[in-house]
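Standup notes
- HV: blocked on the assembly model, inputs below
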Amino acid sequence: MGGRSPRRLSDVASVAAHYGCTLESSGGGKHNWRFTKPGKRPYTVPAHNGMRTEISWKYIQGLCRNMDIPIEAFTD
Amino acid sequence: MEKFDKTLVLTGSIVVAPAEDIAGVWVGHCLDFDIISQGDNPNEAIEAVIEAVAMAILDDLQAGLDPCDRPRAPDEDWVRLAKVLKHGQQVKLSDVKADHKMVLATLARFVFEPRAKHDHDGFDQFNVPPETAHVNHQWAA
């Protein structure tokens, strides 16, 4: 799915992995996952429904800014 | 950032709006730390982004990093916040009814206190959730 579309968390994690990001468990609460990348600060994930959570384009933009992922990675 | 003795108090401006791409989902964005989360209604989105910010700040403090060095949101998001604050109406969050043409702006506070040395390392943390928000029906897009 291209364009400015939402993605399943599993898809987001797959794309982010190509840019050195790892999805890690971070404990309790609604944000029990976070993306990490060497040299970058952890970025929390709204995984309210696990890997099937639909992730909004707005969040994807924020993830890209914070993890140095080109936004085009999610539009192809 | 305000520092009182060893207690750290941080504030975060939060903008909440309907997700443009997922029906029924609201996106919360804390501009000071560029952290984004989402929920099924405006209040859930605010709670979710507050939780996400608190976790990120705690990660930073435990790693010896200054949370204020996190990148801020892009300028366009701050402009949007300013428009909501300027043109919006202040309401109690408990009175907010989801309207898919509205955008909310509010402010949360995060308080962190280092634990005593004889205790295990780390921070005690609590959040001061907002009670009111500015709501605007013109600047949702």
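- HV (later): unblocked. The helical segments of chain A are 9-17, 57-67. The interface with chain B takes residues 4-6, 26, 29-31, 34, 41-44, 46, 48, 54-59, 61-62, 65-66 of chain A (CB under 8 Å).
- Next: hand off to the docking folks.
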